[in-house]
């Protein structure tokens, strides 16, 4: 009977590749190139620091003056966030 060896999971190289934020995104997270995972982390740090989650529905994020140009509207759901941010990375 063969036993399967369990190997440590390697991170996907595409997620770890540093990407340059657009000027609009850089206003929120800074201008340095960072991996996609860090971009998401920094945006959530900003959202929590400025208390931008909608109190009545925590899945929604209210845009402040820095986020409104990024989102293009006053409020987005957390599920839209990744798609919006992807358009601002190169």
UniProtKB/TrEMBL annotation:
Transmembrane segments: none
Stored Pfam families: SWIB
Keywords: Isomerase
Any one GO molecular-function label of the UniProt entry: isomerase activity
Entry annotated with the keyword Isomerase: yes
Stored CDD domains: SWIB-MDM2_like
Keyword Cytoplasm: no
Domain DM2 as annotated: residue spans: 14-90
Matches recorded under PROSITE patterns: SWIB_MDM2
Name under which the protein is recorded: DNA topoisomerase III
Source organism: Orrella marina
């Amino acid at each position: 009977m063969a036993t399967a060896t369990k190997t440590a999971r390697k991170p996907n190289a595409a997620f770890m590749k540093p990407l340059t934020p657009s000027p609009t995104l850089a206003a929120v997270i800074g201008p340095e190139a960072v991996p996609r995972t860090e971009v998401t982390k920094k945006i959530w740090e900003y959202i929590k620091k400025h208390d931008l989650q909608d109190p009545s529905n925590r899945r929604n994020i209210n845009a402040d003056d820095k986020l409104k140009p990024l989102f293009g509207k006053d409020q987005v759901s957390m599920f839209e966030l990744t798609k919006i941010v992807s358009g601002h990375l190169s």
